[in-house]
Amino acid sequence: MREGKTLEFKSAVTASFLKTVSAFANYDGGSIVFGVNDAGEPIGLEDPVRTCLDIENRINDSISPIPDYSLVVHEASKTVELSVKSGLATPYLYRAKAYKRADSATVEVDRTDFTRLVLAGNNLNFEQLPAAKQNLKFSYLGSVVQKALGLEYFNEDTLKTLNLLSADGAYNNAAAILADESDFPGIDVARFGESVSVILKRATYEGACLLDEFDKTIELFKDAYCYEVVRDVQRELIETIPMRAFREALANAVVHRTWDIAARVRVSMYPDRVEISSPGGLPAGMFEETYLSGMVSVMRNPILANVFYRLDIIEAFGTGVRRIKEAYEQSLTKPMFTITEHAISVALPLVKSDIGLTDDQRRVYDLLSAVRPMAVGELLEGVDFSRSKLTKILQHLVSLGVVETSGVARGTKYRRLA
């Protein structure tokens, strides 16, 4: 057991633990175990019960507002475990400062994070705040809404229905993002050749309605990854990367990004894949496993999400990741998701069909990792046939270009491409 984002060890009670209490209450919760050294070894406390009283008094006297916490004495090891729950009344302050966890360290939040905590504590999102400019026009949004919803008119009542205009006539940030002239960061697109030093096309869509920027990026994608063939006098559209997967990934990127930082959504187009990177990590209250499951969604920007939903750009809240994966169900290559504290990236590879794989070949392919090269001995544990047959299957997959090798002779390992 090691220290991490939600676990800290303390050999004794010192004032520094209160910063971690603030961090846990402000974000994902966590535990502090007293009477344990940095190596995770219990060294015990002289008087655990008295330590509990000391911890309780320090929290009640120093953290504002007081977070939800509990204390447990572990008699066998003579340690005390303090569990702090993630709170709703953020920011939780220690000496007028708010803290967060950075892996196993506790650091003071910056100005942006502090503002986000204040908004969250008031049950507000950045998109709900009043827009800095109120003289907004919505020609592009209006035309899209009228066409999609079959409306005869687009007026203030429509804007109020979309929650872009308040009852007293004030536009919010979501409205400013969708206005014809927007001061918010847009979408940066680059199409590369055989290396990143070869830039075939570069475009930055900014200063316009987000929907306009979204549509223009879709057109660039079509130029790069879609083409038509004529079969029996009929034209057939071929998508080397599924359009619905890219559309969903791009919609997720612009709808769920953080809008309070001056960073653009980045779309990087390569010969074998397209990558979409969205500023801002996961919203508070969502973990990587939940996000990748595609079953639960915490809305960072519910107003924007609702507009995209009504326009049928996204089908349902919280299904984006699942729909991206579904677009690759019949492909050997699969999308890859990379999640960090400050960004979420999705890589969509070129589709490769099953190309007539047998059940055993498909089974071996599914066992392989797209990240970690695996040896034959490791793969043997997942199949019920001989090493020689497994080796032949692996060689066949390599010849098809869907698996790559590293190492030589007995040290040869195999990795799935995407």
TrEMBL record:
Q: Which SUPFAM superfamilies match?
A: Winged helix' DNA-binding domain
Q: Report domain Schlafen AlbA-2 positions.
A: 3-108
Name the Pfam families on file. HATPase_c_4 (PF13749), SLFN_AlbA_2 (PF04326)
Protein known as: AAA family ATPase
Source organism: [Collinsella] massiliensis
